[in-house]
Design goal:
Blueprint: H1 2-7, E1 9-13, E2 25-29, H2 37-40, H3 55-63, E3 68-72, H4 75-84, E4 87-93, H5 114-123, E5 128-133, H6 141-146, E6 149-154, H7 160-168
Helix pairs in contact: 3-7, 4-5
Length: 186
Amino acid sequence: REAAVKSMVLLKNEGVLPLSSDLKVVAVVGPWADAKAELMGSWTGDGRAEDVTSVFAALREAFGPKTRLVLAPALPEAAAAAREADAVVAVVGEDATMSGEASSRSELGLPPGQLELLQAVKAAGKPFAVVLLTGRPLAVPWLAENAPGLLLAWQPGTEGGRAVADVLLGKENPGGKLPATFPRSV
């Protein structure tokens, strides 16, 4: 958990982070909001997906019973959840098999459907932060220009969900620096 926090990079914060512990409803959206394997990536060593706490589960733990968390991984549900929430956390990026050895891609953007989900979240007009899970730099110019909060979590491992929650709620400061340049386009 400590190593995960130290590896994360806060790429952008326009006053949305840290999330207030007094929020009544938080929507946790995106395809990896409740994922486990995606937090471990393709180089897992002894890690097992069943030992991972997802970002959604970790945020539910961190906020406690006074805040209602709504899980909405797909676009129509995410848009509706964002409209009803006080704040939104969007968890997007590559799936665990997209980076690592023998996993070349011809496109370095977000996988299909994720940008549209993020655009729907923005259209809801609520404060939102994006958690980006990836094993490599991605071309994400829309995120750089439009997300008020952007946390690069990489593939943070079995305690990655809790580390993300710690950072988003201000219990920990991310300590990572960018070891590579993120391209503006392919």
